[in-house]
Amino acid sequence: MNTQEETNFGRIEAAINYISRNFKTQPGLDEIAESVHLSPFHFQRLFTEWAGVSPKKFLQYLTVEHAKSILRDKQSSLFDTAFDSGLSGTGRLHDLFVHIEGMTPGEFKTGGNSLLINYSFAETPFGQVLVASTSIGICYMAFAGDTAKAFHQLESRFPNAIFKQLTDTIQQNALHIFGQDWTHLKQVKLHLKGTPFQLKVWETLLKIPSGQLTTYGQIAAGVGAPGSSRAVGTAVGINPVAFLIPCHRVIQSSGAFGQYHWGADRKIAMIGWESALAERENQN
Fold this sequence. Notes:
Layout: H1 3-22, H2 29-35, H3 40-51, H4 55-61, H5 64-74, H6 78-82, E1 98-102, H7 105-109, E2 116-124, E3 127-133, E4 138-143, H8 147-157, E5 162-165, H9 169-175, E6 188-192, H10 196-205, E7 214-215, H11 216-222, H12 229-237, E8 250-251, H13 264-283
Parallel strand pairs: 1-6, 2-5, 7-8
Antiparallel strand pairs: 2-3, 3-4
Helix pairs in contact: 1-13, 2-3, 4-13, 11-12
């Protein structure tokens, strides 16, 4: 990411933060633009280029009332209808093209001994990511403001693996998820290190359609353990594959968006971005 792109992303991130803190007053274009030290005209153009919708439209997707309405409308049938929703365009379900394969007990126990892991850095609408893959599939994806720190975190997950900085086809296929046209996505396989319960939670997350939200309690019910919201929260929090496994779509039962491993503002940006894309898809 070059200096200008970093500056622009920083301004958009700050604007999203400002909107999320002040949504109850529904701030206007002039007020939001002033908060990031841009003219209304420049800010409107920059924001629309990044999000695909105007700041005013984006604001509508970031209010708690929007989150509550999604939950209220979908609560009783979210997982029942997930498989039948969004079968074309940008609203398609992750599980139509993402498959999880757990690592073997030996790979899990030895910290990736004998695994060859390729890794690379790439730009997304939400900042730079580090993406890593084995010969089987994606094993890690994380937002990486500090590249050295991000690689150290990858190493800590697989302390005995062999790492090579290389962009491969597996990574390229996975990164297509950040494009606005998902119609030509190839199936993506994930090769994950996790307990059976964690893998089950992550598989359930894949069933949440883009542009929709759920709660920890609903995820717990979806994995057949309705009293395990806390354990579900832990599994969601240690999700090793940002965005592809959409833990950003899980919010609090109150309707508040809550925290996110890679930053609350980034989570809000993702929810708004996906909601805007879903709205555009529905209008087409």
